[in-house]
Write a structure and sequence with these properties.
The protein is of the alpha+beta class and 132 residues long. It contains two helices and six strands, in the order αββββββα. β3 and β4 form a beta hairpin.
Length: 132
């Protein structure tokens, strides 16, 4: 049913020239932005609040699950986000969160979507509704 609704919105948008803004009710992310299928293993999600580090195992487009870890660092304009696949790798800067649903500033929209899903699963593992 949801696929039919989304398809109808996309076709309607093409006809009238506006982009649909269907959102995922849990994460509040635009379905129109998603170009990958992301599955987070919620049983693997974790959040170290003291260090502001979190992660989970993620499968992208049905592939094998791989670990992803993220680190938050506050700055004057928001929160810098860093990512790595294992604890022996260096942290790589991937974007900034400045607040609100439109506050995700990442160079790669797929990476942004993966980050949001992992962040929310990690927050939920610690008893919160969502990370941001």
């Amino acid at each position: 049913m949801l696929k039919k609704v989304i398809s109808s919105l996309i076709i309607g948008a093409a006809i009238i020239g506006t982009a649909p803004m269907v959102t995922d009710g849990v994460l509040g992310i635009s379905v129109a932005e998603a170009s990958v299928n992301i599955n987070v293993d919620r049983s693997s999600a974790w959040y170290d609040q003291e260090k502001q580090v979190f992660g989970a195992a993620v499968s992208i487009n049905g592939g094998e699950y791989q670990s992803r870890m993220y680190k938050k660092e506050r700055n004057s304009g928001g929160t810098d986000i860093y990512m790595r696949f294992s604890s022996d790798e260096e942290w790589e800067f991937i974007g900034v969160y400045t607040g609100g649903a439109a506050g995700y500033h990442f160079a790669d929209s797929d990476e942004k979507m993966i980050f949001i899903k992992v962040a929310n699963a990690a927050a939920q593992s610690a008893g919160y509704d969502k990370m941001f």
